[in-house]
Amino acid sequence: MNKRQSQSGSAHLIIIIVLVVALLGALGYVFYLNFMQQKATPAPASVAVVAPSEVALSETESDQFLNTGLSIKRPSSWSASTTGGKDTEMGSNVITITSPDGNTDISFRITSGGGLGGTCTEGNGVISKFDKDTIPGYPNAIFVSQVIANNNGTQDYYLGIESNSGSIQSVVTGSDACEVYLADIHGLPELKAGNMQLFATFKNVNNHTTSTLSSFEKLSETDNYKIVKRIIQSL
Length: 235
Description:
By secondary structure, the chain is of the alpha+beta class. It has 4 helices and 10 strands, in the order αββββββββαββαα. The strands form 2 sheets. Strands 3, 4, 5, 6, 7, 8, 9 and 10 form an 8-stranded antiparallel beta sheet that branches. Strands 1-2 form a two-stranded antiparallel ribbon.
């Protein structure tokens, strides 16, 4: 009798020990999955965000059409292409610089003859937004960012260079559009009787619409706009 009870108690004890071991093993496995494995997984590397003012303008695009010695700089992440030549209308050469997202183009155009742009008649509209800044390396031009309110209710924007003449210095918001209508630089010795334009176009802002001004104002807060300004001011 005592022997049978002893055997039964031993069996119960073995069962209890097996259950405890199994429970501890299960708890250890859960601990490994939830804590140890997570620690072993490396955290994803952080991507450094470079401010527009710190993006390196490491590439140079030079005028090799008239060999004026003029050039602009761009980031390596912005692409560049060249079109035109002596056989094109007016003999023109255009270097186009495009942003990585494809939404922004900068046109650096040199022509060997003729003027660029058109004529302006007083009363075509008024300037509803106007900002300007210097171009340190080329004082003959000035950086301009503007929106013109046309008489038909639509608006047009322009971001690029203007001739740094006496008239541009007096332009303010509300001035007649003719004060800044022509954007080509000409009549200067370094241009060798040619003309130069340097301006940007943005695919998400349309000209000749009633919402151009509001779209352009939103654009001025973007990285592309800020980098475009730096590229143009590198002239």
